[in-house]
Amino acid sequence: MAIAFETQRGALIDACLQLADQGYLAGTGGNLALRLDEAHFAVTPSAADYYQLRPQDIAVLRLDTLAQVQGEMAPSVERGLHAALLRARPSFRASVHTHQPLASAVALLNRSLPLSEPADVADLGPCVQIVGYAPSGTAMLVSTLRRALRNDCHAYLLRNHGLVCTAADLAAAVPLMGRIEAAAAAHLRQEASRLPMGHPLRELALEACGATHFQ
């Protein structure tokens, strides 16, 4: 029997592997979703090894109720988070949640990440908006995200929990993660440059951001 939405579910796995290879999906952490049609979306399974995934493992859920209609594995605990974003952005097809290190470090500071590169502002908005803390995989987190949504922002830092971003499709979403990480590196370098020479956090920021010196 043919697998429903096999091509799209395979594309979701390919995107996972690209992000895992870049170090943006740690272990089994992080998850991706893809709008399939007006009524359904696909989401990666819970606690799965990205390198072992098959198209039939990818869960297909109803966008309105989150009821699972396809897939041999249980869907990500963050399915509600992805559904909230896809409902709020009907013209976007992809939603990505990562634990990438530098964006996650900015999220720990509990502040939005300003964006200044014209291409980043055009694709993501003026900032990566901070979302207050709520436990992972809970209705509280979904509600907290909904309250933070802005029409001009397409990426959000989840306090103590990484990054979530929407994009037109998976091909656009994957490079956006790298651009956000670069913006986070620049922001952390700028913040650390305000610390005095010899301050341990200054040196830690240097090492984490891969810089050899501050300009």
Can you tell me about this structure?
The protein is an alpha+beta fold. The protein has a single domain (6-179), classed as Class II aldolase/adducin N-terminal domain (L-fuculose-1-phosphate Aldolase), CATH 3.40.225. It is 40% helix and 18% strand. It contains seven helices and nine strands; from the N terminus they run H-E-E-E-E-H-E-H-E-H-E-H-E-E-H-H. The protein has helices at residues 6-21, 79-88, 101-108, 118-124, 139-148, 170-193, 200-209; strands at residues 31-35, 40-43, 59-62, 68-70, 94-98, 113-114, 127-131, 155-158, 162-167. Strands 4-3-2-1-5-9-8-7-6 form a nine-stranded mixed beta sheet, with helices on both faces. It is globular and about 60 Å long. The relative contact order is 0.14. Residues 211-215 have low confidence and may be disordered.
Number of domains: 1
Q: What's the order of the H and E elements? A: HEEEEHEHEHEHEEHH
Low-confidence stretches: 211-215
Could you give the count of β-strands?
9
Radius of gyration: 17 Å
- Most strands sheet: 9 strands, mixed
The mean pLDDT is 90
User: How is the largest sheet built, in terms of strand order?
Assistant: 4-3-2-1-5-9-8-7-6
Decide which structural class fits the backbone. alpha+beta
